[in-house]
Amino acid sequence: MNALRRYDYAIQRLLPHFWLAGFRATDSGNPRAGDLVMLQSAPDSEWHLSFYINDQGDGYHMLESLKTGKLCRWGNVGFVVISREWVRDYPRLRWTDTQFRFNDLYSAEVRRADFWMYVPFIERLDGSMAFLGFRTRHNLNPIRTMADGFDYSEASRGDLRTHLWKWHRIHKACAGQKGGQGAGR
C-alpha cells in the first residue's frame, strides 16, 4: 500500500498542533461534507484519518482515506472532526500526488532562479492549473501580482521557467510604480 504524499504532509502539519495546543475537535460526531475526520470505535485501518464525503443513510457514511485516496462506506462508527480552522490553514491536505510533484518542480525552479527581491508563490492549484503570484520580499511593498493560470500537466521545466520570469518582470514593473495595483488575472 503506497501512501499519498498528502498523508505525510498532514501528519507533519497536524501533529505539532496536537502536541502544542492539545487535541481540539470542532464537532465530535457531526461531520460535514469535506471535513477531515478521525474514526472512533473502528479498527485501525487506512481510513483512521479521512475526508468525510457524505451520509449514506441507515447509519452509513462515505469516507475518502487521506492515506490512499480510496473510498469506503463505514457504518457503526463515530467521528472526531479535526478543527476546521486548522484544516483551512493547510490547503495542501487536498492536493494529489501530481500536484505535489508539480510543487517539487516549482520549488526546484524557484531555488535555481534565485529570485531575491520579488518572490513567487503558489496561490492555488486547481486540477492541472497552477495559479502563481509574486510578492515583494519582507512585504516592503504590499502589491501582489497574480499570474494567469499555468497548465502544468504537460509543461516542461523550461515552460515553467519562462512563465516565472515573464511574471517576475511584470511584478517588478508593477511593484516599482507607486500606488500600482499589480496585474490581475
Task: Describe the protein in words.
The protein has helices spanning 5-21, 84-88, 97-113, 157-176; strands at 36-40, 49-57, 60-65, 71-75, 78-81, 118-126, 129-136, 144-146, 150-151. The strands form 2 sheets. The chain has a 5-stranded antiparallel β-sheet, with no helix packed on it. 32% of the residues lie in helices and 28% in strands. It contains 4 helices and 9 strands; from the N terminus they run αβββββααββββα. By secondary structure, the protein is of the alpha+beta class. The protein is elongated, with a radius of gyration of 20 Å. It has 2 domains: 4-89, Roll (SH3 type barrels), CATH 2.30.30; 95-181.
The structural domain count equals 2
Shape: elongated
Mean pLDDT: 85
Strand order of the largest sheet: 4-3-2-1-5
Determine the strand fraction and express it as a percent band.
25-35%
| Secondary-structure content class | alpha+beta
Distance between the termini: 40 Å
Largest sheet: 5 strands, antiparallel
Low-pLDDT ranges: 178-185
Q: Measured on Cα atoms, how large is the radius of gyration?
A: 20 Å
Q: Summed up, what is this model?
A:
This protein is α+β, with helices and mostly antiparallel strands and about 180 residues long. It is about 30% helix and about 30% strand.
Provide tags for this entry.
single chain; 9 strands; 32% helix; SH3 type barrels; elongated; 185 residues; five-stranded antiparallel β-sheet; four-stranded antiparallel β-sheet; alpha+beta
